[in-house]
Amino acid sequence: MFFLTDFRSENCYSAACPKVIRLWLLLTFFAFYLLQGLTYGLFKIRSRKTAFAVFMTNSAVVLPGLLVLNIWGNMIIEDMDKQIECSYSGFAQSMQMIYLISTYCIVFVYIIFLLTIKETLKRYYAFMDRPAHQMNQRLDVPSMRINLVAGRSLRDWQDGIFYSLYFLSRGRIGSAAEREYIDAERAAR
């Protein structure tokens, strides 16, 4: 709503304000919803390669980009506060603060998502690395030393990320559906 109303008016920011604030608001708005849209899309994608590419783009490009944008926004707003001649509408000030705060919140939530992915990757690799005669025994992931990076191929990562997304959206620990999924994965290998 802000971009369709106050943002377009001449009174939104005075001439003394840095012009780059408008660009920052647009970029932050776009990146904020891009991260959310791509994360939502991760759970809808059926291709393992595409899911992996989107996951890596989100985690290695969009998320760090959001942090850089937020630091840049903090610097711009600090510069605006130092300039006495710079004045802007209360709506613009509210939107700036909402974007700064909500971006930090979404980054925090995404980091929790990444930690969850890490734990589900451990579970997947534990299943894949076990010998067939141990598959019926209880899986004790915390006591196992599982390396997520060393010795893992691109296919391992793609399959592991896909399992993690499946597990987060539909799986239950120890369920029959999880067991069928793992059995199918082991058979495919």
Task: Give your account of this protein's structure.
- By secondary structure, the chain is an all-alpha fold.
- The protein has one domain.
- It is 67% helix and 0% strand.
- It contains 5 helices and no strands.
- Helix 1 packs parallel to helix 3, helix 2 packs antiparallel against helix 3 and helix 2 crosses helix 4.
- The radius of gyration is 23 Å and the shape is elongated.
Question: What is the mean pLDDT?
Answer: 84
Largest sheet: none
Structural class: mainly alpha
Return residue spans where pLDDT drops below 50 for at least 5 consecutive residues: none
| Approximate helicity band | 55-70%
Number of strands: 0
- Count of helical regions: 5
**How many independent structural domains?**
1
What's the helix-strand series?
A: HHHHH
* Tertiary shape: elongated
> What proportion of the residues form beta strands (DSSP E)?
under 5%
Distance between the termini: 51 Å
- Radius of gyration computed on alpha carbons: 23 Å
Task: Give a quick rundown of the structure.
By secondary structure, the chain is an all-alpha fold.
List the helices and strands and how they pair.
Blueprint: H1 20-42, H2 48-82, H3 90-129, H4 154-169, H5 176-188
